[in-house]
Write a structure and sequence with these properties.
Mean pLDDT: 75
Largest sheet: 7 strands, mixed
Strand order of the largest sheet: 1-6-3-4-11-10-9
Oligomer: single chain
């Protein structure tokens, strides 16, 4: 009897690059230094660069070796994710030792009966400037557990691994409703901090799906743009609302009617509003002659053309913060 066996060798990280444990140690120290620097000053400073130089000297690594290793890891995002897992575990462990708390996605909202964590992907997303790894999209289909009027929010923390260049990015959250209208909110990502995106669903519509993405800039000319730069331009500009008047030109019966009379969007129609101090939508808040109502925000619905002849309905929530007077 003969046996044919094949033994394959798992390719390792080339010796000319820093190994995972060394990378994790340096990145960990970078985050500690960044935390110290953010308490004492704001923005990138000479002090932060001094911290970085000291860290590399402490680990006996040159700037060139660290930069080339970082490029290698960003081209192999699974390896970079493994390194970052080590960093996150160490930060969590030391936080617990000194009295801090350890929090995973979903832990914060388990005790809140009105809130449910619906995130279905990995709690850690790592992006690099390279085309195959510069974006993370997600889509969540609604089921029978969703209700009309549900609000959707996206909370996450960012950590920029690169220490030079600009920090500029965008996360986008979009909710598609049962009538195929879409409400979108986005946020620039410009620092290592906590971000909160929220869609209020002021029209109390039933949700069909939740979509969104995070994107890291991919530039064709790396010499013109720092590898730390994240850049995204939304395909549609958020409409603005102009204040036509602060006293209505006619007698109105609801806060929504008052907002529609006094506020004019550049594109679209005001279909709902939020009144400061009220829990119900503005269309259900009655107003009498002489009433003064503070409009916290308005919902603007408009039709926008995208690729070719295709058109979609977009819904934006726009802050106002103006007190309007009914006649």
């Amino acid at each position: 009897m003969s046996v044919l066996g094949i033994i394959s060798c798992k390719p390792g990280i080339p010796r000319k690059y820093l190994q995972p444990n060394k990378m994790a140690d340096i990145i960990y120290d970078y985050h500690i230094a960044e935390g110290i620097q953010s308490v004492n000053t704001t923005g990138d400073t000479i002090a932060m660069r001094a911290y970085q130089a000291y860290i590399l000297k402490k680990h006996r690594v040159s700037q060139a070796d660290f930069d080339s290793s970082l490029v290698y890891y960003t081209r192999h995002t699974k390896l970079l994710e493994d390194v970052y897992d080590k960093v996150a575990e160490r930060l969590n462990n030391e936080s617990a030792i000194y009295g801090g708390s350890q929090l995973s996605i979903g832990d914060e909202i388990i005790n809140n009966s009105d809130t449910t964590n619906v995130w279905q992907s990995s709690p850690i997303v790592i992006l690099s400037p390279y085309l195959a790894f510069n974006r993370k999209t997600f889509e969540i289909k609604a089921d029978t557990s969703y209700h009309e009027g549900d609000r959707i929010f996206l909370d996450f923390d960012t950590k920029f691994i690169y220490q030079d260049g600009m920090r500029d990015g965008v996360a986008l959250l979009a909710v598609t409703y049962s009538n195929d209208s879409v409400e979108v909110v986005s946020n620039s990502l410009m620092s290592s901090t906590h971000y909160h995106l929220q869609i209020n669903n002021t029209g109390c519509l039933k949700i069909k799906s939740i979509k969104g993405f995070f994107l890291h800039n991919n530039t064709q000319n790396q010499n013109l743009t720092s590898k730390t730069t994240l850049k995204l331009t939304d395909t549609q500009d958020t409409p603005t609302v102009n204040i036509e008047r602060i006293t209505a030109s006619k007698s109105c019966t609801t806060a929504l009617e008052l907002a529609q009379n006094c506020l004019i969007p550049e594109n679209g129609t005001i279909t709902e509003c939020v009144v400061t101090g009220e829990t119900q939508p503005g269309s259900k808040v009655a107003v009498k002659a002489g009433d003064q109502i503070n409009i916290k925000s308005v919902t603007v619905t408009g039709t926008y053309q995208i690729a070719g002849d295709k058109k979609i309905n977009m819904i934006y929530t726009i802050s106002v913060g103006k007190t309007l007077t009914n006649i």
